[in-house]
Amino acid sequence: MGSYSMSQVATLTGINAHTLRKWESRYTFVQPKRTDTNIRYYTDELLRKLLNVSILHRNGFKISKIDKMSNDELHANVTEVLLKPIDGDVLTALMLCLLEMNEREFVKILDAHILNKGLLQTVSDLIYPFLNQIGVLWGIDKVMPAQEHFVSNLIRQKVVSAIDNLSLPEESASKIVLFLPENEHHEIGLLLAQYIAKDLGWNVYYLGQHVPLENLKSVQEIVQPKLMLTMFITTIPDKVKDKIEEILSNTSAHLLVAGNPINLKEKYFEERTTYVSSPLELITILQEKK
């Protein structure tokens, strides 16, 4: 069974510490356990309950009413609220699906959001913030690799399906090569870049994860792309500059670089390299260079 500090629960639920203490003193639904030194901690079960409570509270339910609900009533009300969610509710619901490994609800939420907002906005407004929340859980060692892989693969399936539904570009269209360097495996962002580029009419050569950089020279000779795009998510910052230089030594194409801002510094970029900070910026760049 997992255990969470008050500050961790506040980060994951959006309920601040003062409110948690107040609810604890007034209501029965939030009763954290105590360590031998009298420090509060919250169980997995209580975290899931507080995630549900946060959804109802944002939608106008009085805490005194929530306190009297059975678990079945709580879940029924959350399900009804999520039919027309407000900002924050969908993200919280995805967190619950992650913790419970609930594929059915996770897919239902994603499908509804994609239908209403489109894939690009869903990724920007929902999936990226959700992955950041997973990062919080990783940081406090409260998510299993299996859980992270579970939801990442569900997201991947949605993006790949959307890519497959796009029309093929003209043979004469500009070419872009997408790849992740060796030891980079988080490809959702790269898949989104593939979707954006293909949707804008580019011929996309998707090499995927863990590509040996020395292979890029042959790819350059065969494809002769106008652009290459890569991402640094987990690479140690001190290694990024060397990797960028190695990539540039193997291609004459302009290089677009995205990823974790912590890993990417302005001094790493030269005339043939552009930092891409967001999907919207990528759209602008591809439209200009097309």
Automatic annotation (TrEMBL):
Ranges of residues in domain HTH merR-type: 3-72
Molecular function GO labels: cobalamin binding; DNA binding; DNA-binding transcription factor activity; metal ion binding
SMART domains, alphabetized: HTH_MERR (SM00422)
Keyword Phosphoprotein belongs to the record: no
InterPro entries found in the cross-reference section: Cbl-bd_cap (IPR003759), Cobalamin-bd_sf (IPR036724), DNA-bd_dom_put_sf (IPR009061), MerR-type_HTH_dom (IPR000551), MerR_fam (IPR047057), Meth_synthase_dom (IPR036594)
Keywords in alphabetical order: DNA-binding, Repressor, Transcription, Transcription regulation
Protein's name in the database: Regulatory protein MerR
